[in-house]
């Protein structure tokens, strides 16, 4: 008996780190489970905070609240535009920083890092001051787009740069030796190889944009995005449909993530001629590199 | 010659965007913070009193912000390190699943995540009942306390702590750890003399990435705290968007940014600079 107890104790001690690790993972997933569970709730009043009963009504009525749909549509439009713009100009910046030695490189690096080290409330209020004093831009979709592109750029640069740093320049040399023009080399060799990085960066930019509340709250004027709708609704009681849409977005992002991992594996196969090719982990392609 | 202009063309659009919409607005923020007068007729006149007024009125919220953010960073570190260690060295084929779980919260909206904690920590919830039985919830109450705000901050910024620590642990050459063991170091000696120092860049990056956004946050204090748990972000937000006291709000924003910058610089002096500058954190 004591032997068995001792064995268990020993097992616990030997696996203490893993046990804590697993508990922390579960802790990270708790709110997601709660959001999912409460998307099936049938609340008695306006507040969806206590469990009353199971219903599928809100899933079948997911897009039944016009203001919510409009906010979601605004957020999606904004996120797509901000993603496209920030991914294009961020990728160009990353190319410049990795491929060239030039005067002002350190300053450019600093310019890219500093927005990531600034609290959102400072960025939001600074932009609002700028828009208010300047008076050229009326607050609304355009100021939101400006703000979202601004805070996405740095993350795009960091993600794409990490991909470019591990890039074997010999492949481009080989293409040139085989008679490819610089443009062909870029389109047929460089681009496909850094595509997973660009895709990861775009996903991260999209996630940052669609989730942004603080900066948007300062610069939205009367335009309402999905997070702003939630914030406004929080005071008067959030409809259950918000949970449903949050879960739809969640599953959609998971699918995109799966696709990104698959694409990355494919790109790795393309370069598998090089045995020392670093095998990146697909899942946090964007998120991990952004740190 | 051509090669010399190419990088500037590539850099141009992004640098222009960041200069125009990040750097220039900071200048406007500074100018606005020195405006005097009343709403409707704010005017620039080197009104330094905005700073002293703002600081004397809102010093409690400032101190509270750094206290909450500091505690949240500490708790996040204590939770994140074992998790990052598990993922890097023990997870095996579960590694991708674990990493997915770490980033999964990002896929649900920040506000909804925080509202989910409002549900979890509400007085009727089983979690609070358990905490109450353990004597951890005075008067059966967690929501609308400082503890709830710190818990929310800890949760929301945890992935920013886990990912850099994982990245630096993952890069460690396992042979170094084995060498420690071969030289008769105990498990804890190996950890404190080899593993922990080698993962320091990740810890530095993680603490900064947690502390900076946490100290400026106002969503957690708004949803999980009460009027007596307001952080400086709440004050700035309310001065700007509700009371239209732009100069005071701008002054507070500026002080917040300066305070964080000073704290970060001191911290980096002690902890090394690679982590923040991005070269290493990639």
Q: Give the structural class of chain B.
A: mainly alpha
Tell me, rounded to a whole number, the average pLDDT of chain A.
82
Enumerate how many helices of chain B there are, as a single number. Answer: 13
CATH class of chain B: Mainly Alpha
The major beta sheet of chain B can be summarized as: 2 strands, antiparallel
Strand residue percentage of chain A: under 5%
- Identify low-pLDDT runs of chain B: 275-282
* Total discrete domains of chain A: 1
CATH class of chain A: Mainly Alpha
- Helix/strand-derived category of chain A reads mainly alpha
Number of helices, counting only DSSP H or I runs of 4 residues or more of chain A = 13
The CATH superfamily name of chain B is MetI-like
Multimeric organization: heterodimer
**Poorly predicted ranges of chain A:** 275-291
Largest sheet of chain A: none
Q: Order of SSEs of chain B, N→C?
A: HEEHHHHHHHHHHHH
The CATH architecture of chain A: Orthogonal Bundle
Radius of gyration of chain A: 24 Å
CATH topology of chain B: MetI-like fold
Give the terminus-to-terminus CA distance of chain A. 49 Å
How many domains is the backbone of chain B divided into?
A: 1
Question: What can you see in these coordinates?
Answer:
The complex is a heterodimer of chains A (291) and B (282). Chain A has 291 residues and is mainly alpha-helical. Helix content of chain A is 74%, strand content 0%. Chain A has one domain: Orthogonal Bundle (MetI-like fold). Chain A contains 13 helices and no strands. Chain A starts with a helix and ends with a helix. Chain B has 282 residues and is mostly helical. Chain B has helices at residues 2-33, 49-90, 95-103, 110-121, 126-133, 146-170, 174-182, 187-198, 200-216, 219-224, 232-241, 246-271, 274-277; strands at residues 35-36, 43-44. In chain B, strand 1 and strand 2 (43-44) form a beta hairpin. In chain B, helix 2 packs across helix 9 and helix 9 runs antiparallel to helix 12 (246-271). Chains A and B meet through helix 2, helix 4, helix 5, helix 6 and helix 7 of A and helix 1, helix 2, helix 3, helix 4 and helix 6 of B.
């Amino acid at each position: 008996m004591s032997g068995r107890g001792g064995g268990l104790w020993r097992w616990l001690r030997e696996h203490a780190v893993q046990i804590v690790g697993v508990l922390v993972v579960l802790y990270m997933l708790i709110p997601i489970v709660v959001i999912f569970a409460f998307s099936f709730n049938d609340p008695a009043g306006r507040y969806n905070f206590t469990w009353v009963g199971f219903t599928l009504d809100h899933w079948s009525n997911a897009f039944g609240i016009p203001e919510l749909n409009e906010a979601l549509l605004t957020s999606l439009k904004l996120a797509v535009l901000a993603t496209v713009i920030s991914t294009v100009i961020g990728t160009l910046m990353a190319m410049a920083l990795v491929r060239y030695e030039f005067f002002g490189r350190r300053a450019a690096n600093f310019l890219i890092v500093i927005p990531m080290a600034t609290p959102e409330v400072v960025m939001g209020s600074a932009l609002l001051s700028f828009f208010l004093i300047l008076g050229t831009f009326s607050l609304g979709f355009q100021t939101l787009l400006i703000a979202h592109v601004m805070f996405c750029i740095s993350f795009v640069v960091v993600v794409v740069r990490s991909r470019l740093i591990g890039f074997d320049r010999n492949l481009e040399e080989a293409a040139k030796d085989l008679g490819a023009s610089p443009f062909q080399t870029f389109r047929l060799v460089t681009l496909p190889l850094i595509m997973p990085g660009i895709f990861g960066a775009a996903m991260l930019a999209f996630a940052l944009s669609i989730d942004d509340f603080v900066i948007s709250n300062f610069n939205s004027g009367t335009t309402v995005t999905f997070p702003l709708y939630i914030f406004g609704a929080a005071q008067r009681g959030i409809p259950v449909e918000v949970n449903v849409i949050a879960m739809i977005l969640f599953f959609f992002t998971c699918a995109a993530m799966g696709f990104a991992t698959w694409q990355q594996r494919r790109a790795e196969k393309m370069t598998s001629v090089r045995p020392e090719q670093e095998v990146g982990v697909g899942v946090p392609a964007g998120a991990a590199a952004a740190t | 010659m051509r090669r010399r202009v190419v990088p500037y063309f590539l850099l141009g659009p992004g640098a222009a965007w960041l200069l125009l919409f990040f750097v220039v607005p900071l200048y406007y923020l500074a100018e606005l913070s020195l405006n005097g007068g009343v709403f409707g007729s704010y005017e620039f006149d080197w009104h330094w009193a905005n700073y002293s007024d703002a600081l004397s009125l809102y010093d409690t919220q400032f101190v509270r912000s750094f206290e909450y953010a500091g505690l949240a960073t500490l708790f996040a570190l204590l939770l994140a390190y074992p998790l990052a260690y598990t993922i890097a060295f023990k997870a095996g084929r579960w590694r991708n699943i674990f990493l997915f779980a770490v980033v999964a919260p990002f896929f649900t909206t920040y506000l909804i995540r925080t509202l989910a904690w409002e549900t979890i920590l509400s007085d009727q919830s089983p979690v609070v009942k358990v905490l109450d039985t353990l004597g951890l919830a005075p008067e059966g109450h967690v929501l609308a306390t400082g503890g709830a705000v710190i818990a929310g901050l800890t949760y929301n910024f945890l992935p920013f702590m886990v990912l850099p620590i994982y990245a630096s642990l993952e890069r460690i050459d396992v042979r170094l750890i084995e060498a420690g063991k071969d030289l008769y170091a105990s498990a804890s000696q190996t950890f404190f003399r080899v593993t922990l120092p080698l993962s320091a860049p990740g810890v530095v990056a993680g603490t900064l990435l947690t502390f900076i956004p946490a100290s400026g946050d106002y969503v957690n204090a708004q949803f999980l705290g009460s009027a007596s748990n307001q952080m400086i972000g709440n004050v700035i937000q309310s001065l700007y968007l509700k009371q239209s006291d732009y100069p005071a709000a701008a002054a507070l924003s500026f002080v917040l940014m300066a305070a964080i910058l000073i704290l970060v610089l001191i911290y980096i002096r002690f902890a090394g600079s690679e982590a923040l500058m991005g070269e290493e954190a990639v």
